[in-house]
Specification:
Chain lengths: ~325, ~300
């Protein structure tokens, strides 16, 4: 294997605990695997445009627990997901009610690590209603919760999200607050929740800022994800951040903690994700088929051990 | 069928194979469901079973397997895992007095099932109330391209032979050949043989031969009793020029054909004929040897 932009010790492993792989290509899976990503968590979210009927949700949830899991496994990556109704689509109340009726059929399936990503977008009454209802569901099923904090009015939205979790008597160590920044981190940590940071170009965190947050707040209950999706985003957000931490003088243990150990500890509480899933995995065999389909077409050799050298771009994500 | 005995056996096996806490959880949930809890309780607990029971094999003894057979002829939970037993148990606790409501709940859980849930549901078919009502669902299960789900309907399951008409039955056997599932594991494979199926299988063999591909020797099993005319030409060619396994299969099929010509063809191969007559050569033995050979081929290719 030739020199890569993210060289790694053979034993270095990363988890991307928030990434929307249904929008990504097999090139991305290869690059992630090459960079040391061993497991991904795919939160149920919206698809860039609102769905208009329940069947669209049904097929999406099916994809998260079925085909996408298989697709990831073909590249040696374990795939987990969260199930929930996102805040944006909570605003179509009649459809949202149907989704609430559908969630019990998916929430407790194997490999579902949390109810999520749920929370606020515009902080409407409808968003609040379905946020409450899904916290009830999490409580009833004894599941973890992944909270998406809003892009706008973030600080208030984050505080209010934690208020709701406390109202429902959820243990903060079983709730992950995602998409934090310099303005929200302190309160999230003080109140005992997990603080996740999304390394996403332009709109969320850059990884240089992330390095400084770890320098200031340490590593306890902090972890990073890419939230790579259908927008301009980077599925190597986690490994690139780990590398930048080392280059900027943070200890190796700190990089490992926020890019591997902490997401595993947080989501491991679900009992649905464990290190042995990838340390003793079934052998990669792309000849396997799921629903009669292989990811491979046109007679390509079924091997992903040595993907082409690619992505020699900068490790910094602005 | 003695359904209360089926339930009693499942309860005992779950108690033996699941952690105490998991066993208690299944008991609690089945009581809630039987007591008329909202459907969401059934849906969420059906999904959540492996979270509480783990996935250990039931590892049933010979006596347990016999008890299963006594409770429900053809019921084969011997190779189930404890989460499959737990899921079966929860399905069996659904109140079924209101037929329409019961079938609608069952339909919903089938529709949204993931792979492992589908397998557990199809394995449960032979012990469900209203057996005739599940024919279309079982046939739907055969349309999957996930082999594990297909096998849950087709193999080690008495439901298809009991409930399918010849159309669905024949499609199932042909697909089993197509996807490489062993015919000996299909209950009623000999009893449900028919002339139309024999024709379909032989047509399939011709398609494969035209493409210079082989067919499983087991293909000839349901053909034998209905082999006549041109089918006997095929069998004569196979017993003369086939691989050793194919020759053995052709001998078994010819021995089942009621025609005089089949007996004449077989007489030209006295060793094979005698092996069949002695009982040294059987479909079961042939199938197991073929499966072993296929496993070796896969290992060698890898």
């Amino acid at each position: 294997m030739s020199e890569n932009a993210t060289p790694r010790d053979e034993r270095t492993m990363y988890i991307d605990p928030h990434v929307h792989m249904v929008s990504r290509t097999t090139d991305d899976y290869e690059a992630m695997r090459d960079a040391g990503v061993v497991a991904v968590i795919e939160p149920a979210f919206w698809l860039g445009q609102p769905r208009t009927n329940i069947g669209a949700f049904q097929h999406y949830f099916n994809m998260l627990v079925g085909w996408e899991r298989f697709r990831a496994a073909q590249f040696g990556i374990r795939h987990y997901c969260t199930i929930g109704l996102n805040a944006k689509e909570a605003n179509n109340e009649p459809l949202a009610e149907e989704v609430m009726d559908l969630l019990p059929l998916y929430a407790a399936k194997e490999g579902v690590v949390a109810i999520g990503e749920i929370g606020y977008d515009d902080m409407t009454d409808a968003e609040e209603r379905f946020f409450h209802e899904q916290l009830d569901l999490a409580k009833e099923l004894d599941m973890l919760v992944l909270v998406h904090t809003p892009h706008r009015n973030k600080k208030e939205g984050t505080s209010r999200s934690m208020d709701l979790c406390e109202e429902h008597n959820l243990d903060p160590t079983r709730v992950i607050i995602d998409h934090n920044n310099e303005e929200t981190v302190e309160e999230v940590l003080d109140r005992g929740f997990w603080a996740a940071f999304t390394i996403y170009p332009e709109t969320k965190m850059g990884n240089e800022r992330m390095v400084e947050i770890v320098r200031e707040y340490g590593t306890e209950r902090i972890f990073v994800d890419s939230a790579a999706d259908w927008g301009v985003s980077d599925p190597l957000g986690v490994p690139k951040t780990a590398q930048l931490m080392l280059e900027r003088g943070l200890p190796k243990e700190a990089a490992r903690t926020v890019c591997y150990d902490n997401p595993l500890a947080a989501y491991g509480q679900s009992g649905q994700i464990a290190e042995e899933d990838w340390l003793n995995p079934p052998a990669i065999d792309q000849r396997q088929v799921y629903s009669g389909n292989s990811v491979l077409r046109g007679g390509r050799d079924p091997v992903v051990e040595d993907p082409a050298d690619r992505r020699k771009d900068s490790i910094i994500i602005e | 069928m003695d359904r209360s005995r089926v339930i009693e056996l499942l309860d005992r096996w779950i108690a033996e194979a699941a952690p105490d806490e998991g066993h208690r959880w299944v008991q609690e949930k089945q009581e809630e469901i039987a007591g008329g809890a909202p459907n969401r309780v059934f849906y969420t607990s059906f999904s959540a079973v492996p979270r509480y029971t783990g996935k250990a094999d039931l590892d049933l003894s010979a006596a347990d397997r016999e008890a299963a057979e006594e409770a429900r002829a053809g019921w084969r939970p011997g190779d189930w895992s404890v989460d499959q037993a737990g899921r079966s148990r929860l399905v069996l606790s659904l109140p079924s007095e209101d037929r329409d409501a019961y079938l609608s709940t069952l339909d919903r859980v089938f529709t949204h099932a993931d792979m492992n849930e589908s397998v557990a549901l199809y394995q449960t078919l032979p012990v469900l109330p209203y057996p005739k009502a599940h024919r279309a669902r079982a046939a739907e299960g055969l349309r999957t391209n996930i082999t594990a789900v297909f096998n849950a309907v087709a193999l080690h399951n008495p439901y298809p032979a009991e409930q399918f008409d010849d159309g669905a039955w024949n499609q199932m056997v042909l697909k089993a050949v197509f996807v490489g599932s062993p015919l000996y594991a299909i209950q009623g494979i000999d009893r449900r043989a028919n002339a139309e199926l024999a024709r379909m299988l032989v047509d399939y063999a011709h398609e494969r031969w035209a493409a210079d591909r082989s067919v499983t020797p087991e293909l000839w099993r349901p053909v034998g009793p209905f082999a006549e005319g041109a089918m006997l030409d095929d069998l004569e060619r196979v017993i003369t020029a086939g691989t050793p396994a194919e020759q053995q299969a052709a001998a078994l099929a010819l021995a089942q054909s009621p025609t005089d010509r089949a007996a004449t063809i077989l007489d030209a191969h006295p060793e094979l004929r005698d092996a069949v007559q002695r009982g040294a050569l059987t479909w079961g033995r042939l199938a197991r040897e073929a499966m072993d050979a296929a496993d070796h081929a896969v290992e060698n290719a890898a």
